[in-house]
Amino acid sequence: MRWLKDNRLAAIGLAALFVVTAVLVGFALRPVQAPASDGTPFTPPPTNSSTAEESPSEEPSPSEMASEEPTQEPTGESTDEPPEPVPTTRLLTAASADRAWRASAGNCEDPGTLEVTADGGQSWDAVDPGLGPIVRVKALDEDTMFAIGGDAECSPNFQISASAGAEWQELNEELGGSWYTEPADRNTIVGPAGEAVPCEADMVDFAGLSNTVAMVLCTDSDLQATTDSGASWGSVGSAEGGVAIAPQLDPDSEVQSYVLASLEAGCDGVAVRVIGTSGGGAGGTPTGCAEVGHVEAGNVAVALNGEMAWLWAGDEVLVSTDGGASW
């Protein structure tokens, strides 16, 4: 106590120094805040200034975005349009559900080929009638058939076989009463009454039904028919997409008719119709549809013998026993 009395001023100074020190320590330990009035804790700015200064990635312009979109415009072409008919390159005739002959027509420069089957089209054997182009084939029975085509000079030539094609005999005297197209001019048809060019366009195919009755299919879809052995021809209807025609070969059939093949919408393959001698049914509902997929025009041939029908389309050979209703 004596010291305090003697050193009052020093004691007061020490006390003041202690108070000031405590205040300074308190300020040093309190949280640092931004100079905002709401007292929200302050977040320091990023230290990586290069990242902060990077601009956002550019958005693609409308023109750039449009360029990434598909640019294909609709063509306006319908896939249901039938193919353009062309002259056939194939011939087919059948004697039964097992026996048939088929030919690739060829021309005066490139000979055609002829084949025969005895197992419903499962296998084929080449036979040689000695012709260049082949313009008509017709089965008469299981072993007998004839072929008409061009000889070495591309003049009409008639060959007949009674051994399914193993042996042949020339019989040109039969040409006068037969239907065929000129080997050197496939638009000219020859019949018992003479020559004619029935189509204004090209000829797709023809079918001789009897000595007096025949029908021709043209590339403009016109059907031309004759009932006077070819002395006169007239239009009997239209067959849109028609690619082949063949006669009823059975002379005892109750209805003498033709089988018509066409490529058209609604049938994934070849549509088949049995039509009358006056063209009736050519534009109606198909008798049946052979679903063989895509087939090129010109690569189709048909045959009809009683209720038995054959179709050669692309690589397919089909047989129907109900007139083409099912295959």
Main β sheet profile:
4 strands, antiparallel
Round the mean pLDDT to the nearest integer and report it: 84
Sheet-strand content, in percent, reads: 25-35%
Which sequence of strands runs across the widest sheet?
1-2-3-4
Cα radius of gyration in angstroms: 46 Å
Number of strands: 22
* Number of helical stretches of at least 4 residues: 4
Distance between the termini: 134 Å
- Helix/strand-derived category reads mainly beta
**Low-confidence runs (pLDDT<50, min 5 residues)?**
1-7, 9-15, 17-79
What does this structure look like?
With 327 residues, the protein is mainly β. It is built from four helices and 22 strands. The strands form six sheets. It has a four-stranded antiparallel sheet, with no helix packed on it. Strands 5-6-7-8 form a four-stranded antiparallel sheet, with no helix packed on it. Strand 6 and strand 7 form a beta hairpin. The N terminus is likely disordered.
Write a compact overview of the structure shown.
By secondary structure, the protein is mainly beta.
Which key features would you list for this structure?
disordered N terminus; globular; 4 helices; 327 residues; 4-stranded antiparallel β-sheet; mainly beta
Q: What is the topology?
A:
Elements: H1 2-6, H2 8-29, H3 49-53, H4 62-68, E1 90-94, E2 100-104, E3 113-117, E4 125-127, E5 134-139, E6 145-150, E7 156-161, E8 169-170, E9 180-182, E10 185-191, E11 194-196, E12 203-208, E13 214-218, E14 222-226, E15 234-238, E16 242-247, E17 257-262, E18 270-276, E19 288-290, E20 300-305, E21 308-313, E22 316-320
Antiparallel strand pairs: 1-2, 2-3, 3-4, 5-6, 6-7, 7-8, 9-10, 10-11, 12-13, 13-14, 14-15, 16-17, 17-18, 18-19, 20-21, 21-22
